[in-house]
Amino acid sequence: MATDAAAAAVTTSSNDSSARDTFARRARSTASHVARGLFRYFRLLTYADPSVIDIALLVVGTVSSIAAGVPFPLLGILFGELLDDLNSATCASQDSISPGEYQSSVNEKVLLVMACALAQFALIYIYIVCWNLFGDRLAHRLRERYFRSLLRQEVSFFDKLPAGEVSSRLSADINIIKSGTSEKVGVYMGSLAMFVTAYIIAFIKNARLAGILVSLVPAFMMMALVGGHFIGKYSGRASQHIASASSIALESLSNVMVVHAFRANDRLEEKFAAKLVGARKDGIKKAVATAIQSGFLYFIAFSASGLAYWQGSRTIADVVSGRKEGVTVGTIYTIIFLLVDASLVISQISPYLQIFGSATAALEKLEMDMERRSNIDGTIPIEGDDIESISGDVRLENVGFTYPSRPDVPVIQGVTLDLPAGKHTAIVGLSGSGKSTIAGLLTRLYDPNQGAVYMNGRNIREVNVRQLRSLIGLVQQDPLLLDRSVLENVALGLVNSSRPEHASFQPVLFSTQLAQIAEAVRQGQDIEAAAESHGPSALEIVKLVQYAANVADAAVFLGHLEYGLGTVVGPNGDLLSGGQKQRVALARALVKDPKILILDEATSSLDSASERRIQGAIEEISNGRTIISIAHRLATVKDADNIVVMRNGKVIEQGHHLDLIAKDGDYAALVRLQNMGSETSSVSTAKASTMKELPDSSIDMDEVSRSLTAEAKTAEAVAFEVVRQTEEKAKLTNRSRPTWATIKSMALITRPFLLQLCISFFAALIVGGTYSGSALIFGNTIGALSPCNTADAIRAGGSLFGLMFFVLAIIEFFANGASWSMFGWVAEKVLYTIRVLSFRSLFEQDLQWHQSEDRTPSMLLSYITSDSAAVGGLTGSIIGTIFSICVNFFVAVILSLIVAWKIAIVCLATMPIMLGSGIMQLRILSRFTERHEKAFSKSVGITVEAVNSIKTVAALSLEQEVMETYRRSLSGPRKEMTRSSLWVNLFLAIAYSISNLIYAFIYWWGAKQIIESGYTQVQFFIVLIALLVSAQLWGQLFTLAPEVTRAGRAVGRIFDLIDLGSSKTLPAKGQPHHDPEAAVESEKAATSNARGLAVKFKQVKFSYPARPNRQVLKGLDIEIRPGQFCALVGPSGAGKSTVISLLERMYSAESGAIEVDGVDISAKKEPIFRDNIGLVPQDSVLFDGSIRFNVALGGRPGTEPSDADIEQACKLANIHDTIMALPDGYDTQCGPSGGQLSGGQKQRLSIARALVRKPRLLLLDESTSALDAESERLLQDGLEKATRGITVVAIAHRLHTIRRADVIFMIEDGRCVEKGSHEELLVRSESYRVNVLHQTLEG
Description:
By secondary structure, the chain is an alpha/beta fold.
């Protein structure tokens, strides 16, 4: 027994000690968490190299905000003394003693109160201005630093960072930081200062009572910290989900033609919505955490009030009964008034902790990117290295490389290769064999994992990156242009030039001068005259650009454009055809006269005639220049000094064209596959012998001039179709939306959550009412504690009203918890709905809507990111706060008029001043926002464009130039920021400090009424507290003005967009949101795919409405019978891709008719006929997701392709084996825009995506331009199987890809000039013959 007892005692003591240890550990971890949180927040304030001005604003703002919190507690002392005077006056009136002398004492103190109030106004104004400017400047610095740090990163970093995420970080996250470092910090510090000063005064006045109320501090701190931790955690998670959803939206918006062609918007919407579900869940958790925190803070504040009144009543009872001395009712009142008011204010500013926590969380996400060291930093300035001596001799020694995103798939394996200076080396081989990777390694877009790249014997890792790139001109496989004029795009090549004579151009290149010259050209001025007015450097740049455009064969098509070099190319250069983009990119590479020229498939989108002219021009300027060209068209490289053949990342043979043919190895096999003569030798050889005797000019000058005119006219298109419907839609989005319409739309979206909203508003109603309830209890307590009463009555009153305060605390806890959590829940549901409906509506608009009114993908993305984030700011807790403040205002007014109308009516006369100042602030803010909205949206557009074109930016070393453009876009708002802040915040300061002037006025008037009219203290204090709490809350309401202003404008814009779409609400799960007729028709389409579709163009005329006088198609007549393989050939820009766009009904024909299967496609409301069409676009567009997801996007709407269907399509597209060789097979991620795959792989997946829907009409636009001959042959075999019985329309510049066509249409100048089979056209058409000859590789 004794042993058992001893064991039990030991167990108990060990349990106790382990419990103590656990508690101690938790306490330590909580303390360290708090310390970390505070440290992180202070780091945020001093982040991103603040200037002296920023430090000054921070110091002055901090000092003045702390100082602004001090006057209020001093006022508390004066109010206590005033109360003693009132008590004396009341008791004096009961004792029939003349109270006149008390009035003069009251008047003196009222004047002191006014002096304090004015000092507080000055301090509030100073700190609000300082903090506002500080927050704005910090946001600007962070935007710049984040963007600068992104530009510094190596290209592989962007494989996992989609541009949509960057946009979300720069708009939503930095706005959160700005909100958490602006005037709210000052308000918070002022409130804390007031809280601390209140306690100091309370301890001096009565240590016992103050000591009891000290319990408030740990309770508040604990609640704030625990709540802050959870709020920060869920806030960070939600923003991560939203960033992912944004990147899906941006990628889809950037490729809207593909989305429309496959009617894939539903599938992409599903993926987008899945990401948003995560954001919604975490958002709701955040709302619940905030609600619990807020409820506890109110509970603590009101419980403490109850405790204070109970203890205070006992002290005063002791004074009245003579047991104590030196403690007056005024003293007790001062303590209770100050501590309760301080607690109330602290609990009121509790939402700010959430904002500060979110700001810190947002910085941490940005900081991961900002503090990352780049492995290849192209922004380090060049310092005195002798590069003139570098001749351009390049050697790869045992180079091995894998992409960081797929480390287990080797791309280059042990390659040793010499690229001699001044020679032309060509690299050929299968698609995916590592050719483009070599271009990336030479320009240090990537670094090899093993081995090294040497230039003139120096390892290029030892050469400054910027300097290395200054020697190289690179034309990439997918040329990207920036959204500027052709002049500016070509001149970008001069930004980082190794030529000393180009150094003087820097000031012009980094300014807006070239943009001004382009603008002058668009307004009708001559380009050279416009350039002359900007000085000799600008003129010299224009001449260099004109020369480079000539060499790149761009001068003729530019000459036919209305604005020539002043033509704006649109986002990614999308307003030019593929061939035109390639020529502008080539001119950009040539303009700086580089020592090394790397051409990665630089002419793949050009017709043979253009290609040959460019080759001739490059040969002329190639003396002393190292040229490295990567090509699949072997005819373009047969004259190279050395041809390198690659397979699976290895060099398998190299030598001259004839030597390699003689070897009869891989190269000879590729040549045989590509050689036109292999199938038509008798015709082509006979023709070749006669053709060789003809001089170049006699061959194709007529044909060339005709083709170039056609091409120029296509460029004129600028891809806008502004039909009546689009104009109406444009008007819709530009006009200001009536408030009533916005309220109706919001009501429709919130209707499903009516019950939750009713609970929220009912709870907010109770919260609003409790403020006036506390005034009622407070007034009665002061009456009960009056020394005119007996000691017992005072004790009884204290106990009763103390208990009532505790009951009020419980009500507050539940009402606040219910209100905030329900409002948060509804807010997240509404935000989800708004984002999904915005996404849906964007993709229901046609291509011409997307391309008109200066709309860009990043601008449209702002509806989903920044606009919905602003709406999020207005929904949830802020709505609850605004509603409860309004309820409180009305209740307070009614209560005070009932209780003491003479006192109340005079108090109410002061309210308009306070409301007026708040309304003025709202108006000024909304005007500022309106003025600078476009600038902010443009700045985000610049960053998104830079991330999307990061390879171009890096290769041309444009980091600094892009940064300058970004800065300029924000210079307007920056300049006006200070002036706007000084003006706006004057009214905010008035709204904040007016309450103390009203206090002084009410005390004076109240004392007068008590002395003269017989009102009691109880009535006076009920009115005082009811109206003043109301006044304080109104002051705080106007700090929410910026959020309300932003949200008001955003809600209008979002609903204007949603109104353009078909859905105004989200259907319940499993309910379709498209009309039933469309579904029936789609089903018909899916089942009747037995044969191909007939296609007929009847006298189709088409010009893009932006240039109605310049026709692209001039009465095109084409007839394709079901099951025919038809090919469209002709010069680059002749309108071939326009035919495909019209077939897909991306645009509408001006006159004539387009029939598919005998039905005019313009007669259909919904483009259901697209379900029978498979499109392979000129630019192989893939989406961020798995290979399986990308191929499945091609499935018909409403049907999900099976794995077997996907594999079958991939086998036909000759990509299945490549996929299976990857470690993750069909689950391999393609990366943003398919960036993880080679050009050829992307093209084959695009073909698989088109085949998976088993189309009846297959449209191939340059579908094999990125493929080597072997892959192309296998693909042709697969396509032959897949297209049996279906109609195929193919566009190609490689004639051998379409030689098996049943009918070939020659398109020139918008007309069909010739048609027939390959053999027929060889005999009949000279231009066709010329192209055949140019692509023949024999001998």
